Amino acid sequence: QSVLTQPPSASGTPGQRVTISCSGSSSNIGSNYVYWYQQLPGTAPKLLIYSDNQRPSGVPDRFSGSKSGTSASLAISGLRSEDETDYYCAAWDGSLSGVVFGGGTKLTVL
Amino acid sequence: EVQLVESGGGLVQPGGSLRLSCAASGFTFSTYNMDWVRQAPGKGLEWVSYIDSSSNIIYYTDSVKGRFTISRDNAKNSLYLQMNSLRAEDTAVYFCARVVSRSATWLDVWGKGTTVIVSP
User: Fold this and answer.
1) Which of B22, B38, B45, B64 is the mutation pick for testing A, counting most A CBs within 10 A?
2) pLDDT digits (tens, 9 = 90+) for B3-12
3) pLDDT for B21-43, tens place per residue?
4) Is the pLDDT of residue B61 over 80?
5) Residue A94 touches partner B, C-beta closer than 8 Å
6) Long-range pairs for B77-80 at CB < 8 Å and ≥24 separation?
7) Does A100 touch chain B (CB under 8 A)?
8) Do residue B45 and residue A56 have CB atoms under 8 angstroms apart?
9) What's the pLDDT score for residue A3?
10) Which of A32, A38, A73, B55 sits in a 20 to 30 Å window from A11, CA-based?
């Protein structure tokens, strides 16, 4: 059972906009930045969003992050087949003094 | 090129020990904080440990406290994870990752990982 809660799966058709949610608590999302990672099969995770809503250089602006209270979301617009993979949210948890990850969401492009 | 390369994984019996290494190159290792993150087969990411650039601040996830020890040698551009009293549930791919700023969650460079299998 992960501290941050993500839906195990999400789906959309090419060109569509999809969102992936990440729910936490006041000790993690509610008081610290949220980060999003993309992990292609058999590879290391890649930073997608940092500090709630910032994109590292090289990440397409189709990807965006937002946060409200103790929940965060990753939105992917103009869905493409190569977006079909796993996505993880993460945050620092002050009560645990550690990083907590969501359980991950497998995105399927129909 | 900024790069992290893990090594030291393998098959070990329950109760045994392993020492993982992470060799850094292409950046000034001594100025960066570092993390270990693991991923059990077919499962999600799990943060394991954090160490700051001068080894003054260290954190562990509860499940490894007292069994794992994170350390670094800035002169050798290397990060380590000493794993003792290994359990079946420690079986995973272990990634080392570079931390941006002081946020243990902001990981901008990852290694490809090294596999640890704990089995009789």
Assistant:
1) B45
2) 999 999 999 9
3) 999 999 999 999 999 999 999 99
4) yes
5) no
6) B77/B23, B77/B24, B77/B25, B77/B29, B77/B30, B78/B21, B78/B22, B78/B23, B78/B24, B78/B29, B79/B21, B79/B22, B79/B24, B79/B34, B79/B36, B79/B51, B80/B19, B80/B20, B80/B21, B80/B22
7) yes
8) no
9) 93
10) A32
